[in-house]
């Protein structure tokens, strides 16, 4: 194949067929996809969860992942957060002409590796190649469906006394992307990762999960505010219990950001009943030693952060574009 | 030094035991004060620290924080933001500026909205990014909308020096750099100020030196402590102010010795003076005209001065804040953000009516985010 993607690869003719057969079918190989019908035929008995997301990230490759890993993890994690095992994924590529073929192949290979980790398949897809300048190198849309293994996980379920846990240290993905974007050297790695194994372990252990959410854009702050709002409760978080790595704290100091506002791609927040909190923490620590109980649900209506020196403050929804501070 | 980690740079300054001990000592000594201590923190970074770390809650009743005009974004009058928007719309222009300036509304729009309309506006992390943008776009005029107090001013001067040394001719400057001491004087001279102690800024003082605040002691008999940004810094500075009050010996003290000196960064001051000089007057959002409170490019660099080159298209009429906005009173210590009728209702961070709600470092914004 050519070195670069040209408009011809999106034309529906020979080049498109080559792209599909020699790249996508090679890496996403499964019977449903390669049957090449107009739509995928899948088994769906019982309750299923269905989600979609589009992915655009600059840079395409970052410490700890790339846009392809993000596209699989993002959609599979949205399913996992509803207690559903990711099974069938659709994938739409919008590619800017001129993208290196090698870059596309790297992205596709990563997607294939991630899919195999969770046992999900890409069963249908679409490719568009658009003139230079129409998109930023590549945009990926993935939709996913999966059978729900545990029902009634919802942002509306929180009750006073429930306990809030975080599955690992926060802010990794957001800080890595910021560092790349603003040319700050960092050894920090994005947390970009599939979360089904952790969620499945909680379900199998019979933990009374009230709510689950991956703390993607908007970070921990957004999840906690959404929950407080949806369940009409207050949430109190202990600042010194919220795990943040030194690298993330350092990058936040440089940029003037709060770790709690930064995006994650492999960290989730879970609310469980009080009795199950310790058990859930022990279980999550097996996957990441930074997993921690961070707070409790109260009868207020705001998210409050308690400092280790006895004062407290609100945690607000992050607003708008995150921009570095001036001085 | 090789064993020093990033964590060491801040953990001790956020140590709960130290903060609690300082709070206890402040309470003990403040009991002996014969009048309330009303401390103005000039710098928005301090306002942010006070609210974010809940320091206000640790204070005794007779110590009150008054939030000063030290946020470069907040103090920018709408007409200057209109300048930036107008410049961005000129043919062949790339407009660059720092940080959250891009969000701040002018009279009709903001740079963020103007960017969404298709104009080339780029928020920067580092001032020096302007050099690369200019090199990559030799056929464009790259205008740097320069903002900030004395902290960011030397960076603009350094950018000019680098651009001239490298022979880059397509960078132009719209200078909005403001000075810290003049608004402090203006507030004290207003005749209504209730301030009787100052916490002086961290980063600004690194550049201009602690000596810059001596006039507050000499002319207004008011104690000053140059304070760092961390919670322990602010707590220790308050304790130092209480001690000065009890000794009845006002002076300029420097708590932030690890970075700020009496004379400041002389090299940075000289570099600024090479390119910039003091304006006769500058209009501050919320405070109005303050004489000799801002900088402009020296005449010999007029060919790079966007304010002069585009003078015929830049709007000049003054635009006041919303009439219900009480930012002027808040900045003078005559009112609290929560006293304002539009606080948190018609005026929020996503649609600010007044200067103090505009940036993360503004007093109203800090109250809204952390403690309303």
What would your notes on this structure say?
The complex is a heterodimer of chains A (327) and B (372). Chain A is of the alpha+beta class and 327 residues long. Chain A is 31% helix and 24% strand. Chain A has helices at residues 14-27, 31-34, 67-80, 101-118, 172-181, 196-204, 219-231, 246-255, 277-287, and strands at residues 48-55, 61-62, 65-66, 84-96, 121-130, 138-148, 163-166, 209-214, 234-238, 268-272, 292-298, 303-306, 312-314. In chain A, α3 (67-80) packs parallel to α4 and α5 (172-181) packs across α8 (246-255). Chain A is globular and about 65 Å long. The mean pLDDT of chain A is 94. Chain B has two domains: 54-320, 3-Layer(aba) Sandwich (Rossmann fold), CATH 3.40.50; 326-371, no CATH class. Chain B has helices at 16-30, 44-52, 78-88, 111-116, 129-136, 153-165, 181-189, 203-208, 214-220, 231-247, 266-275, 306-309, 327-331, 363-370, and strands at residues 37-43, 63-70, 93-98, 121-124, 141-148, 171-177, 197-200, 224-226, 252-254, 276-278, 281-284, 288-291, 295-297. In chain B, the strands form four sheets. Chain B has a five-stranded parallel beta sheet with strand order 2-1-7-8-9. In chain B, strands 4-3-5-6 form a four-stranded parallel beta sheet, sandwiched between helices. In chain B, α2 (44-52) packs parallel to α14. Chain B is globular and about 65 Å long. The relative contact order of chain B is 0.16. The mean pLDDT of chain B is 92.
């Amino acid at each position: 194949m050519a070195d670069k993607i040209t408009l011809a690869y999106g034309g529906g003719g020979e080049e498109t067929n080559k792209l599909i057969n020699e790249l996508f079918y090679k890496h996403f190989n499964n019977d449903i996809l390669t049957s090449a019908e107009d739509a995928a035929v899948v088994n769906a008995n019982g309750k299923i969860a269905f989600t979609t997301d589009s992915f655009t990230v600059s840079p395409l490759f970052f410490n700890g992942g790339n846009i392809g890993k993000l596209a699989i993890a993002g959609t599979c994690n949205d399913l996992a957060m509803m207690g559903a095992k990711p099974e069938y994924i659709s994938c739409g590529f919008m590619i800017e002409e001129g993208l290196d073929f090698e870059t596309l192949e790297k992205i596709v290979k990563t997607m294939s590796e991630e899919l195999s980790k969770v046992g999900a398949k890409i069963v249908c897809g679409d490719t568009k190649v658009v003139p230079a300048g129409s998109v930023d190198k590549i945009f990926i849309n993935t939709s996913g469906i999966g059978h729900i293994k545990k029902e009634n996980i919802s942002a509306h379920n929180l009750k006073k006394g429930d306990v809030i846990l975080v599955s690992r240290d926060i802010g990794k993905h957001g800080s890595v992307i910021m560092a790349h974007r603003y040319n700050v050297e960092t050894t920090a790695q994005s947390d970009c990762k599939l979360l089904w194994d952790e969620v499945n372990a909680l379900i199998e252990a019979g933990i009374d999960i009230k709510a689950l959410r991956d703390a993607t854009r908007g970070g921990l702050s957004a999840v906690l505010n959404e929950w407080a709002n949806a369940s009409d409760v207050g949430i109190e978080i202990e600042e010194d219990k919220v795990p943040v790595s030194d690298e993330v704290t350092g990058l936040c100091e440089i940029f003037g950001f709060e770790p709690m506002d930064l995006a994650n791609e492999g960290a989730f927040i879970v609310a469980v009943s009080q009795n199950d909190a310790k058990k859930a923490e022990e279980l999550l620590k097996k996957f990441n030693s930074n997993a921690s109980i961070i707070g409790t649900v109260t009868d207020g209506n705001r998210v409050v952060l308690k400092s280790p020196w006895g004062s407290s403050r609100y945690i607000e929804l992050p607003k708008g574009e995150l921009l570095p501070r001036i001085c | 030094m090789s064993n020093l980690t990033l964590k060491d740079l801040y953990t001790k300054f956020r140590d709960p035991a130290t903060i609690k001990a300082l709070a206890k000592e402040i309470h003990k000594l403040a009991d002996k004060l014969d009048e309330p201590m009303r401390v103005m923190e000039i710098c928005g970074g301090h306002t942010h620290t006070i609210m974010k770390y809940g320091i206000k809650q640790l204070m005794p009743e007779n110590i009150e924080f008054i939030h000063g005009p030290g946020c470069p974004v907040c103090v920018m009058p709408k007409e200057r933001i209109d300048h930036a928007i107008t410049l961005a719309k000129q043919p062949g222009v790339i407009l660059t500026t720092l940080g959250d300036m891009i969000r701040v509304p002018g009279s009709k729009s903001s740079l963020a909205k103007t960017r969404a309309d298709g104009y080339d506006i780029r928020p920067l992390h580092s001032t020096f990014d302007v050099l690369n943008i200019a090199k990559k776009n030799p056929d464009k005029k790259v205008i740097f909308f320069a903002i900030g107090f004395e902290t960011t001013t030397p960076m603009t001067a350094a950018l000019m020096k680098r651009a001239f040394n490298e022979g880059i001719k397509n960078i132009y400057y719209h200078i909005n750099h403001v000075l810290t001491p003049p608004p402090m004087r203006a507030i004290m001279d207003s005749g209504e100020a209730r301030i009787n102690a100052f916490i002086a800024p961290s980063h600004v003082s690194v550049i201009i030196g602690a000596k810059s605040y001596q006039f507050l002691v000499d002319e207004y008999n008011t104690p000053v402590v140059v304070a760092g940004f961390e919670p322990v810094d602010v707590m220790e500075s308050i304790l130092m102010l209480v001690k000065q009050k009890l000794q009845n010996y006002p002076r300029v003290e420097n708590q932030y010795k690890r970075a700020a000196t009496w004379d400041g960064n002389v090299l940075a001051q000289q570099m600024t003076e090479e390119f910039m000089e003091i304006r006769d007057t500058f209009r501050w959002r919320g405070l109005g005209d303050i004489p000799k409170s801002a900088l402009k490019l020296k005449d010999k660099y007029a060919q790079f001065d966007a304010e002069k080159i585009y003078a015929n298209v830049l709007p000049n009429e003054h635009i006041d804040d919303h009439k219900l906005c009480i930012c002027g009173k808040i900045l003078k210590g005559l009112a609290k953000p929560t006293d304002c009728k539009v606080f948190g209702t018609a005026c929020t961070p996503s649609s600010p009516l007044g200067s103090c709600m505009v940036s993360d470092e503004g007093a109203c914004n800090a109250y809204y985010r952390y403690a309303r």
